[in-house]
Write a structure and sequence with these properties.
single chain, Alpha-Beta Plaits, Aminopeptidase, elongated, four-stranded antiparallel β-sheet, 2 domains, about 400 residues, binds nickel (II) ion
């Protein structure tokens, strides 16, 4: 195990980590528009002499080479903000109307910059390479997928990758990690139900797509409640039900839109097939026509067992064993880090940034979301510690 006190190292650059986070928080940019954000990070890397290049428009990949040949570990942060109004009453609130870092990616960037600074300072003390990956558009199309296609996991080839996400469910100074699945897979879908419109008083002359669509909404819930094992969480949500123009008109069609979330590849495939079968079966029974589009969204995010046990050991040394919470629940939310986790052995964990005394408790993707910035100091310590230790033990 390492003999550097990474927490002390992170505390030395505490103000810088917080100032970087506040800068990003004040000037949020959404997916693939992170030009100013990206420029700021490139300037920072250049100031430290860390070689870097811009990929996929606003993404960045950078290398910190150690003292001699060895493995390559990647550390990843996302870059993008959300289209949301910041309603916090703090001096560092968003200055850009209708945009806000409401998922903590501002914190992720400042953590990775902090970890880069610590690792760069100690680069003579490890072998191999740290690859820094700053990913655009995590919230929208999954920048990771495009970065992988652009070859960010090659030259040099990445042997392992580590990422984190801030969490309002965990107090600052604690983290949560788990073996196996961490985040669900997503399949957004659209169902178009076509009937025959007409007068609401004469249903016998029509084929009512509203009644058929209602049957589909209800029956689709039985995939989760009656068919997939209750030991594997899964969700089918229909968030949009559009149809009709007046109380006394039976419309021509109804459009349903929703999302499937599952945590195993098998359940994912099963739910997709059954959604089609159920809707087509109801369409036949109720004389409507149905068109179904199912999009392949983010895959499941799986942690590698060896990386989890390695991370647990390192993190307990940095934080103390009581502050590392094992076996948290998987999230039914998605995370584009999943594309990296499909490609190389990976570890993804949750960093506590809740502080009840400071009132920092609001959920992500909400307009009052904030981070306890003290949690970010731990984040920089943990990310630098795991990279350093991985390179010195492999
Ligand atoms: Ni996020």
């Amino acid at each position: 195990m390492f003999n550097i006190d990474f927490l002390e190292e992170a505390k030395l650059i505490r103000d810088e980590i917080i100032n970087n986070r506040r800068y990003f928080h004040e000037y949020p940019e959404v997916g693939f528009e992170e030009f100013n954000t990206s420029k700021k990070i490139v300037e920072f890397l250049n100031s430290l002499g860390i070689e870097n290049k811009v990929v996929c428009g606003t993404g960045i990949v950078a290398l910190i080479k150690g003292n001699g040949d060895g493995p390559v570990i990647a550390l990843r942060s996302d870059l993008d903000a959300l289209p949301l109004e910041d309603r916090k009453n703090v001096e560092y609130a968003s200055k850009i109307k209708g945009k806000m870092h409401a998922c903590g990616h501002d914190g992720h960037m400042s953590i990775l910059m902090g970890a880069a600074k610590i690792l760069n300072k100690h680069k003579d003390e490890f072998k191999g390479t740290v690859k820094l990956i700053f990913e655009p558009a995590e919230e929208t199309v999954g920048g990771a997928k495009f970065m992988i296609e652009e070859g960010v996991l090659q030259n040099p080839k990445v042997d392992a990758i580590v990422g984190l996400h801030v969490s309002e469910l965990l107090d600052s100074g604690t983290i949560g990690l788990k073996y196996g699945v961490v985040n669900a897979a997503s399949n957004p879908f659209k169902i178009i139900v076509k009937g025959r419109g007409g007068h609401g008083a004469h249903p016998e002359d029509c084929v009512d797509p509203i009644v058929a669509a209602c049957n589909m909404v209800t029956s689709l819930q039985t995939i989760v409640s009656r068919e997939i094992s209750p030991h594997n969480p899964s969700v089918i949500t229909i968030g949009q039900f559009l149809g009709g123009t007046a109380p006394n008109i039976i419309p021509e069609e109804v459009v349903l839109e929703g999302v499937i979330r599952t945590i195993t590849k098998e359940d994912r495939k099963y739910a997709i097939n059954r959604l089609k079968e159920i809707c087509e079966g109801i369409a036949l029974a109720m004389r409507v026509k149905v068109e179904i589009e199912i999009v392949d969204g983010y895959p499941c995010l799986y942690n590698n067992d060896k990386m989890v046990s390695f991370g647990e050991e390192v993190f307990k040394k940095v934080l103390g064993k009581d502050n590392v919470i094992m076996d948290i629940c998987p999230s039914m939310g998605v995370e584009s880090f999943a594309y990296f986790s499909e490609a190389v052995p990976s570890l993804f964990y949750f960093l506590g940034t809740r502080n009840i005394l400071k009132g920092i408790v609001h959920p992500a993707h909400g307009s009052l979301f904030d981070l306890d910035e003290e949690g970010l100091i731990f984040g920089a310590a943990l990310q630098s510690a795991i990279a350093f230790n991985y390179l010195n033990s492999n």
